[in-house]
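Protein folding task:
====================
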Amino acid sequence: MGAAYGTAKSGVGVASAFGGLMFGYDIGISGGVTTMDDFLIKFFPKVHERKMHAKEDNYCKYDDQFLQLFTSSLYLAALLSSFAASKVCTKFGRKPTILAASLFFLAGAAFSAGSQNLSMLIIGRVLLGIGVGFGNEAVPLFLSEIAPVKHRGAVNILFQLFVTIGILFANLVNYGTSKMHPYGWRVSLGLAGVPAAMLFIGSLIITETPASLVERGKESSGHTTLQKIRGVEDVEAEFQQIVNANEIARGVKHPFKELMKRNSMPPLIIAVMMQVFQQFTGINAIMFYAPVLFQTGGFKNDASLLSSVITGIVNVFGTLVSIGTVDKFGRRELLLQACVQMFGSQIAIGAILLHYLHATDSLTKNLAIMVVVLVCLYVMAFAWSWGPLGWLIPSETFPLETRTAGFAFAVSSNMLCTFIIGQAFLSMLCHMRAFIFFFFAAWIFAMGAFVLFLLPETKNVPIDAMVYTVWNKHPAWKRFMVDEN
């Protein structure tokens, strides 16, 4: 793959992107597990009783705060741990941070699979969440810093590609383990140890990024590493750019305080808003609870899990499209096109459910298939746009002096919004019913306007030249670029 130029020889990009595989597996596994009767009987017997009630409201049978906490607790832990991960990333480097993430993942998988009560189950999810906080902080930064500028988008999207593969893997696992009584749910949760082990091995074989080595005073190692990952001897121009950026960064003793300055606002606002919009598209509501959503629409348990596998496959192929197009067409075009497609899909799903799915009936076979098709169109658009670019754009817009701190804000914002969606979606589905899809459609309209008026194009712009080539020339952001020293 041409986009992996500079990383293919050592497998650096692929090894580090296994953090995405772990994250994706955690996203995808919870929805299927929460529909398994054996799991509900052990931890949520009241939910199981409602589920089995023949006349139970389609929209409300899974409405339970503790059931939602099983999904969302991971993201609350990730939110809190992302700031600690930022400190580790700066002081010790990207590689040790990824290693720490893998160890938390392994511990979380073991705790989850062996849970004997709800407290153990939540502790396992919290450990996984800490791993997500560390992994999502370090891996996108790692990929952006090792990638050649002309391939930076495609290399960074390796992370999101592995997220989608992890979701698909989780859906396939759930489809198989749903028939393994009474411990299929343990197998599903325990198999999180497979991508965690892959990440652990990958964290041992990857090299540290040149930018991180220079940042920690290891300029000679940084120069040698840059030569290695580029595969050429002459890297003086790029290395000098890293050194110059680092000299500026060394003058910043308090990066989080630096982020609050006026000239740091453009990348910070964009990083945070990209995460807010990414989550309020409704994507994780669908990915977390796809089996629940399809059961609400009238699918039986096996059919709902199979429908989740189909959307998972679409998600992977949509991300592959992004890898081939992001550095060709740019970030803005992909985001705007996707807004149109996602908006239309959400409106259509909402209209079908509003008119044809009531409290105690189900959709006809043709309408149910149409909902699956619309979900696939929605997931496809997200997969080649807001999914990967929500992580790419924040990782490439902060200068070195505030990069890890700024990206910590991006990660924590993402995890906060993911926690809110995870904790609230089933209750929102119960109370808002079909109107929840119009709610997400309104957010998609807002984020399209945000891209149109406030998001600059960052394709082919060196990370450490953003101020001069992007912010100083943007009509909305150039007024923020004043010297405050």
